[in-house]
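User: Hi! I'm a student and our assignment asks us to look at how structure tokens line up with a sequence. Could you show me two examples?

Assistant: Happy to help. In each example below, the sequence comes first and the structure tokens follow. Example one:
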Amino acid sequence: MSEVYPLQDRIALVTGASSGLGRHFGLLLAANGAHVALAARSIDRVADTAKAITDQGGKALAVALDVTDRASVDAAVARIEDELGPIQILVNNAGVAATAPFLDMTEQDWAQVLDTNLTGVWRVGQAVARRMAPLGRGSIINISSMALLQRLAAVRGRLSLCADQAAAAKWWLSMPMASVSAEGPMPKALSTRRTSPLMPGCRHQGRACPLRRARMTSNPLIVA
């Protein structure tokens, strides 16, 4: 992708917006005219980004949202609609990574990753799509990962990271609603506070670290 289309006055929700790609997506959407709801489990972690947008003349709302909790999702979506308007763009970006190798992973580790990265994508996607469908339009962008294309050695035995991202990719491909578009970009690995333990060779947070043996490349810009 070589361009980002103008999104003047469109309402966008970005989950996992406290840092890394989520913060980047929120700023990018706002820079192109969208009114952005920045969501994370802790509202304090997105407040600074929302302030940065409003200080530049944009419109942003910091929202507490836990993708593993249906009540939290529904409350956040309702608040966004009340304060900004109907959501027209959803960037499903929230995710976690289990740092334990496959042989050491517990059932709790596995369940946490799947509930966030797979069920959480479905949970937020469904809540927003149910509101998009009657309006006859909407865009859902589910951020996946190049990890699903790698051999396990490329992600240091982190099977859960491959499994949940592959399943999420299949989920958006199967969305049956003609009125709501779904995309599934796969950015390269990005070192952040959560993912840096998986990429010991990448010392600086915020730096893109391509995984070895990648068979595709992907630009993490959004077209909606």
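Example two works the same way, sequence first and then tokens:
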Amino acid sequence: MSVLTALMADSASVTLILIFATLLFLYLLFKSSFKSDKYRFPPGPRPWPIIGNLDVLDKRRPDDTMCKLAQQYGEVFTFHMGTEKYVVITGYEAVKEALVNRAEVFGERGITPTILVFGKGKGEKTQAEDP
């Protein structure tokens, strides 16, 4: 008899496993609101554990989703893709402010796995490539 079969046969063990799984889910759900971030991010939709805000993203028209979120949260908002946080800037004036007037702050960005997968190495610059 396997260990899993023995555990499932005892109702107390099943109850303990379900309680543990529920507590783990609740911890992951509320973990982000209890920890203090190093940076203050703009407002945005509350993320789910693991998937972030991907549940609200229209896979066929992600631009429509971002426009709707911009109407709700303003021209600058936070969007979570999985466990990664992204600051989304919409609208001509907000983009101009970020990229022209505050270029030193917004000019660099980290290389994320998404950029590596979809960019296929194009557009990324490493320290070794700097002149």
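Here is something you could point out in your write-up. The chain has two domains: 1-35, 39-129.
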